[in-house]
Structure formats: structure tokens, C-alpha cells
Amino acid sequence: MGVEPASHPASQGRGDADFPLPEMSSLEETLADYHTLGATTGPQIVAHHRAELTRAGVTPAAELLAIPDGRWTRIGGLVIARQHPTTVRGLIFVTVEDETGHANAVVLPDVFERHRAALLSSPLLVIEGPLQNVDGVATVKARRLLPFGPRLPRLSSHDFR
User: Fold this and answer.
1) Is residue 142 situated within a structural domain?
2) In the chain, how many domains are there?
3) How confident is the model at residue 29 (pLDDT cuts 50, 70, 90)?
4) CA distances (Å), 128 to each of 3, 114, 134, 161, in order?
5) Which of 47, 63, 73, 97 could form an S-S bond across to 43 if both were Cys, CB 3.0 to 4.6 Å?
6) Confidence of residue 159 (pLDDT cuts 50, 70, 90)
7) What is the pTM of this model?
8) How many CB atoms lie within 10 A of CB 100?
């Protein structure tokens, strides 16, 4: 004589009467990760915006070294570092991360003043300007900084160290 195992709500499909919450989208799961952990184990946040960023002319970090020196370029990603060394006369260095790697930008003092709010408060930025691509190092000389994507909690970027 066999005994049937009891049905458990967690083992039933989502959206049924015992578990009324709808399944989260991949983006919602990533955002929940950032809100609870400050990081994600799933797709990197920028991957969810790649189609929109591509339409806006944003180049993935992994493709920057293929772009000629001096060409106007847009990069975009999650800000992982903002640095303002006192030895470089007001320059600010920004590193963003997308799903393909890291990209660097340098912000001159006048550009910083025009885009201060975006640079200091937006965890997701598009940065555009001419690309300096010399000796295997690509850096965008920022002329414009634009926030994009959903609001995220203040993430632990390495700021002004």
C-alpha cells in the first residue's frame, strides 16, 4: 500500500491559488538582487538595456579597442568607480561596467560642472565624447553624461579614493 506525498504550495506552479504572485521577469530578478544584495548573480543590469543602448549608438566595452582614435563614441554602464585625484588638476576619472567588460572616461572640470547631478547621483550612465585609443587603452573624453535605466539603490561604487 503506497502513500501519496502531500502537495506542497512551493512545489506548485506560480500564479495558482496557493501562490498568487506572478513570476518575476529577468529584469525584476536582477533589480531585486541589487536592492537586497547590492550585486546580482544573474544577468548584469546593462544586459537588460542592450537593445535600447545599441539603438542609441552605445558601444559595448569589449568593442572599444576596435574604434579608431578620435572617433565620437558613446559608452554606457553601471558606474563602478569615480576618482578625483588632486594631482591631475580637476579631472575626474569614471569607470563603467557593462555585460562585456569595463570602459573608462575622463571628465574635464567644465563638463563636470554641467553634468554634476548625473555624474554624482546616477548609478547607470551613458557617457559620450571623442575616444582616445592609444597603445591598447581606450578612454572616452566625456562631453556629455546621461542617466539611463531604472532607479537603483545607491550601489557601492568606489568613489573619490
Assistant:
1) yes
2) 1
3) confident
4) 66, 14, 18, 24
5) 47
6) low
7) 0.76
8) 17
